[in-house]
Amino acid sequence: MSRFRMYPTPAQQDALLEQCGHARYVWNLALEQWSMWTRETRRAPSFAEQCRQLTAARAAFDWLRAGSQTVQQQALRDFDQAVKHFYARTHRRPTWRRAGRSEGFRIVGPQAARVTKLNRRWAAALVPKVGWVRFRLSRAVPNAKSYRVTRDRVGRWHIAFAVAPKPIPNPGMGLVVGVDRGVIVSAALSTGDRLTCPSLSKAEQRRLRYLQRRLAHCRPGSNRGQRVRAAIAKLHARTGDRRKDWVEKTSTDLARRFDVIRVEDLRITSMTMRPKPKPDPGCPGAFLPNRRRAKAGLNRSILANGWGALIRRLEHKAAGRVEKVNPAHTSQTCSVCRHCAPENRESQAVFRCVACGHQANADVNAALNIAAGRAVSARGETPVPVSPKREPQLATSA
Q1: How many Å apart are CA 44 and CA 38, to the nearest integer?
Q2: pLDDT digits (tens, 9 = 90+) for 51-82
Q3: Contact yes or no for 187/263 (Cβ under 8 A)
Q4: How many other C-beta atoms are found inside a 10 Å radius of the C-beta of residue 193?
Q5: C-alpha to C-alpha distance for 128 and 70, rounded to whole angstroms
Q6: How far apart are CA 228 and CA 213, in angstroms?
Q7: How does pLDDT run across 136-166, given as a tens digit for each residue?
Q8: Domain boundary assignment for the chain
Q9: How far apart are CA 280 and CA 373, in angstroms?
Q10: Mean pLDDT of all residues in 127-133
Q11: Separation between Cα atoms, residue 193 and residue 131, nearest integer Å
Q12: What Rg, from alpha-carbon coordinates, does the chain have?
């Protein structure tokens, strides 16, 4: 995806929001029809039948006929594709689209190529029923057959052209690097580098706490509460933009410098799940403490460091060069003598081997084990890493 920032006029914003509402309505209606289907009832209508229903609905309702038929039919086509991906077990189950959160629609076909360059910094795209909408030229516009117009929670509009970027070529230096992901240090490399994902500054954190206190005193549904929510969403959007920028720059730098990138095979979805309640056997209907608040803080820290986004972008940019290593005991194993013991990890940042006395940063030591492909099983065995015919050279610190 090549995404650009759009700057529609106030009249165009109203027209775009109307198109987003039509696409959301059609998507949710198709999802409702599909959700009501069971083995005992009639099958959900197919895409062709839903298109015929859409034609009848446009003839009956003026507000739906005022929108673009291209946008509405594309919403049905996207939902049909989402259902096929769900049955193929490659994507998640389609969910409901909510106003203010899932604002957007997609354009496919000859109209997607209607892009004109205004000058060195600006271009315009033709949106059905809206007209020519300007967007900022931050890079060259790709030759795509479809694009998606979206609006985030802060109110910013973007246009994204569907094009698969080419992967970054192999540098050919024969170097391999290990990446250890953490909460304090977002990514520790076997070269000794420790990278931290940027977040809100201290002043911005104070303002966020102030806005959250104000929101707690606002009346539900009031205009003041909406303004405070918009200010809070702006701060969260700023954090997300910084995290995305850090992920893109870090993944590009790793793909350009190293031939093989080894990471831990972590199940982030399972790691960030809320803990299950613990029933109290002595008191039916009561529950024991399960440290859910501490787990919620850990989940927020994991998601704020962009663990999953970094690996996804690495797999896109360094296709075929990302290897996943078993993460078992990588932080408790000495990278010099391979002695594994819980006592080696003195603290979150200090690693001191009780066998050979090797001392290093705990995250960097784990990254060295990941770079070497070492993973210790629960029985204390160190399996031989699966490597290509020509083992790359480990990139370590000087």
Answers
A1: 9
A2: 999 999 999 999 999 999 999 999 999 999 99
A3: no
A4: 15
A5: 8
A6: 10
A7: 998 888 888 889 999 988 889 999 998 888 8
A8: 2-161, 175-198+227-394
A9: 43
A10: 91
A11: 49
A12: 26
> Is residue 44 predicted with pLDDT exceeding 90?
no
Structure-token pair, residue 159: 């246009």
**Nearest residue to 126 via CA among 70, 87, 51, 189:** 70
Burial of 176 (0-12, 13-18, 19+ CB in 10 A): buried
Strands (E), 320-377: 322-325, 350-352, 359-361
What is the CB-side half-sphere exposure of residue 182 using CA atoms within 13 A? 21
User: At which residue do the structure tokens 């005992």 appear?
Assistant: 40
DSSP E strand stretches across 51-94: none
Structure tokens at 16: 């775009």
Distance of CA 379 to the CA centre of its chain: 35
Q: Could you tell me the two tokens for 206?
A: 């104070």
pLDDT tens profile 178-196:
999 998 899 999 999 999 9
Q: Which residue has 């003598």 as its token pair?
A: 337
Q: Are 310 and 187 in contact (CB under 8 A)?
A: yes
